Amino acid sequence: MAKIIVTGTPGSGKSTVLAKLSGIEIVTFSSELLKLLAERGITDRDQVRRVPYPVTVEIRRKAIEKLNSMNGDMLIDTHASVKKGIRYIPGFSTADLGVMEDVKGIIYIDAHANDILLRRILDKTRKRDADSEEEIKEQRRINAALVASYALYLDVPMYIIMNRQDMIEKAVEDTKKAINDALGKGEFMFE
């Protein structure tokens, strides 16, 4: 059993890339958090980032314990950080990473800030904050730094996949290569 953390700045196209993969389980970390938060009356995934930090820490730990109990190779779809106004909360703390078992790599799906801005504007299914292109550039820098620190802490490789506008298939192929490399497989069969 192996886990690969897959992350990206909201609007980078991470979910779109992952939706084009098959043959490996994809676990959305925010969905796992939301299941646990539903017991506390929180059911909107865009409200997860507004949960008080001590509750976030507790729920995050329970979700990681659930992931550790699951069998098989999996991709963990998550955010490197959650932005609350001027504050960034890391997606995982070092304490979280310390109890997460069998992580073999971290994939960071990225896109240019202007592409992310356009995708956020066009995505009417989400209730996102209206960030400027400069704020998105800041988010990308923070997220890349956090992902690098996660990889350093876990002593695993970090892969950066650029999801350029209208080049989704290239991002999907690069993601498959990163998964294969992280799992130590020459060829991984995707349907």
Description of the molecule:
- With 191 residues, the chain is of the alpha/beta class.
- The chain has a domain at 3-26 and 72-180: 3-Layer(aba) Sandwich (Rossmann fold), CATH 3.40.50.
- The chain is built from 7 helices and 7 strands.
- It has helices at residues 14-19, 29-38, 53-69, 94-99, 113-122, 133-154, 168-183; strands at 3-8, 25-28, 74-78, 81-84, 87-90, 103-110, 158-162.
- The strands form 2 sheets. It has a 5-stranded parallel sheet with strand order 2-3-1-6-7, with helices on both faces.
- A hairpin with a 2-residue loop joins strand 4 and strand 5.
- Helix 2 packs across helix 3.
- The longest helix has 22 residues, at 133-154.
- It is globular, with a radius of gyration of 16 Å.
- The two termini are 20 Å apart.
- The mean pLDDT is 88.
Briefly say what this structure is.
Helices cover 46% and strands 19% of the residues. By secondary structure, it is of the alpha/beta class.
